Amino acid sequence: MAYWSTLYSDEDAVFDAEFVYDAADITPMITYGTNPGMGIPLTGHVPSQVPDAEAESFDKSLKYMGFERGESLLGKQIDYVFIGSCTNSRIEDLRAVAAYVQGKHKANHVEAIIVPGSKQVEQQAIAEGIDKIFAEAGFELREPGCSACLAMNEDKIPAGAYCVATSNRNFEGRQGPGSRTLLASPLVAAITAVQGRIVDITQYLN
Amino acid sequence: MEKFQTLHTTGVPLPFENVDTDQIIPARFLKATTREGFGENLFRDWRYNADGSPKADFVLNNPRHSGEILVAGKNFGCGSSREHAAWALYDAGFRTVISSYFADIFRGNALNTGLLPLQVDDKVLTRLLAAIEADPQLELVVDLPAQTLAVPAWGETVSFAIDPYKKECLINGYDDIDFLVNQKSAIEAYEKQRAWTW
Which of A60, A152, A169 sits opposite B16 (nearest CB)? Predict the structure, then answer.
């Protein structure tokens, strides 16, 4: 923080636009569509109204995902959980996941994979014993790499299946042809893996 | 890279917003070391069923539509940065994409491929998409030196913006490397007159 505080904008800097957010106002989010902007609070609803110009793309996206306008995602069964990608598999993320899943087990019908962000993160996770917590909870620790974020190797989500993923890409077919991706944070992903469905995580925290 | 001056052709309508690079060319087809051959898998999962048979309702499989210009919804080329998206469009025979907004990285990749990203406003785009649907033979004329898109049937011409450097590159058929190599004699002359300090 001391170093960060030395990195500041000039006093006379001019910005095109300024946005102020209070992190406390942001509840855990999840995506319901096929681009990262299509997100809602976990306890929210898929929008029921969109501008006419966007309606065709919007409905195409919902059809792909198998969701309806206006519906809640709570209770939706999930088939896969992917905790990984360059976006969300730092050692801090893996620690947060481990802290939650310790002493629990993933739901039987869920396939849960964890892919460290780098070889260094993998080694650190092993050194901290986090790998054993994952193994006991039924989460498979796989080789660092793009894995199921990109579906270029064998880590693919089958057509029609739902995957809660911690990457930042949820485009059609991104995790394999026909795959359906819901983006969420590592903690939301971990809770989803244990519950086997989308839940209001505030009711399930340790 | 091929030179781009003018283009006289028809347009292929793709009226979806936020067309991302995973749709343009899915990641599983990126394993190649040259730019050629990606056109075969352009829009792969929109264009073909899992068994490889064509999807009749996708525009590239519709014999009504052909041409060297893809006319697509707002925010074309968003998502993962992959040059292959521009290469696939080019390899499939497109020379221009018209949209009301291009994702930045796609825009850059297209310009370095010889594919012109031609940005028009939302109203022009909506009219164009409707007009091409109604008449797939609608003539479109792109004049890069003049920076205009003409629709003779409308008796109208609209201007478009392009970075002057990239315009020069496209007209001459240069990508960024070609441009630099073309400056070789000037670089060498500069190096000769420069007093080296190490």
Answer: A60
Cβ <8 Å between B17 and A57: yes
Which domains, ranges and CATH numbers included, belong to chain B? 6-193 (3.20.19.10)
User: Residue A153 pLDDT > 90, yes or no?
Assistant: no
pLDDT tens, residue by residue, A41-51: 999 999 999 99
Chain B nearest CA to A94, separation (Å): 24
Q: B30 by DSSP, 3-state: which?
A: coil
A39 by DSSP, 3-state: which? Answer: strand
- Note the pTM of the prediction, 2 decimals: 0.88
Spell out which residues of chain B touch residue A54, defining contact as CB-CB under 8 Å.
17
State the complex-level ipTM: 0.83
Residue type (1 letter), A100:
Y
| B143-157 per-position pLDDT tens digit | 999 999 999 999 999
Six token digits for residue A180: 């359906």
Residue type for position B49: N
Distance CA B1, CA B86 (A): 13
DSSP string, B59-107: GGG-TT---SEEEE-SSBTBSS--HHHHHHHHHTT--EEEES-B-HHHH
Over residues B63-77, the mean pLDDT reads 97
Does 3.30.499.10 match the CATH number of domain A80-203? yes
CB-neighbour burial class of residue A72 (10 A; exposed 0-12, middle 13-18, buried 19+): middle
